[in-house]
Amino acid sequence: MSDTSINLDELRQRIDQLDSDILNLISERASCAQQVAHVKLAEDKDAVFYRPEREAQVLRRIMALNKGPLDSEEMARLFREIMSACLALEQPVKVAYLGPEGTFTQQAALKHFGESAVSLPMAAIDEVFREVEAGAVHYGVVPVENSTEGVVNHTLDTFMDSSIKICGEVVLRIHHHLLVSETTRRDKVSRIYSHPQSFAQCRKWLDAHFPHAERVPVSSNAEAAKLVKTEWHSAAIAGDMAAKLYGLEHIAEKIEDSPDNSTRFLIIGNQDVPMAGEDKTSIVVAMRNQPGTLHALLEPFHRHQIDLTRLETRPSRTGVWNYVFFIDFKGHRDEPKVAAVLEEVQLRAADLRVLGSYPIGVL
């Protein structure tokens, strides 16, 4: 037997031993999670099991400790699944998302909560809000902005009439693929289905490769994928999850015009989130319609050196030509510096509401 085969056998034995060790440690962690559940329920029958700030701290710690050879984000994703499975032993997390099944929003929900979460599709953004408000689910996931197409106005507008809080965020790299079914005649594709935003994000590619194909907008990319199953001359623009769900094949991959195409999703819930160490706060502010309004709103942030990450304006529902401002900035509402700024803005504004302070997305 050669030295190479001896070394290979030794390595395989070592891997088998490590797998056993990993299995035992995961089982021990799961047992600890069950004990945590018993302790929490003994103290409070309505105890909260999923803690966004705790999960963010754990994942950041794992990434900081990681020495390779696995990438830190890959290691964090492995630990998220372990945490998701352990949390399911305590209490399965129910998550509503903008459906149908197979959308990027479902992909974002599973990326944030892990595969052990129970994800439930909703037909509209306001339905996601209603499910969370009613307590039918623990959390909701809704899109809020795309890096190329901008803000999702429906999500921002829904916050105006809701008491829901933002508990987290997740950013998803969006890759669009051109998909067909097994019965599609690829040389005869004359119709392409997709969501209007996906068409916008793939416009240049489509102009170059399918300039004469009819572009049919539908309610979601998952719906586009479903339609393709019944037609021999059509294709769909959708992601990997929809392709897998409906058994479609790739004609072309990553056809989005911008290689950095990403969508940010918000995690919404009913509770305030304590500080995690690296946080973001979102507020909505109604200002009086007078000269210098915007300067008065932003000046305290500049003076206290608080980093604004997004500023959006939406028409107010209280009067013509009145506007409200949605602002995201780094920091937590419980930090003294942030609390001081919010107090100043409150004095200058007609109305101010903190939508939530939450951990900056780790993955």
Automatic annotation (TrEMBL):
Pathway: Amino-acid biosynthesis; L-phenylalanine biosynthesis; phenylpyruvate from prephenate: step 1/1; Metabolic intermediate biosynthesis; prephenate biosynthesis; prephenate from chorismate: step 1/1. GO terms for biological process: chorismate metabolic process; L-phenylalanine biosynthetic process. It comes from Halomonas campaniensis. GO terms for cellular component: cytoplasm. Gene3D superfamilies: 3.30.70.260, Chorismate mutase (1.20.59.10), Periplasmic binding protein-like II (3.40.190.10). This is Bifunctional chorismate mutase/prephenate dehydratase. The lineage of its organism: Bacteria, Pseudomonadati, Pseudomonadota, Gammaproteobacteria, Oceanospirillales. It is found in: Cytoplasm. It comes from the Bacteria. The keyword Coiled coil applies. The record marks 263 as: Essential for prephenate dehydratase activity. Catalyzes the Claisen rearrangement of chorismate to prephenate and the decarboxylation/dehydration of prephenate to phenylpyruvate.
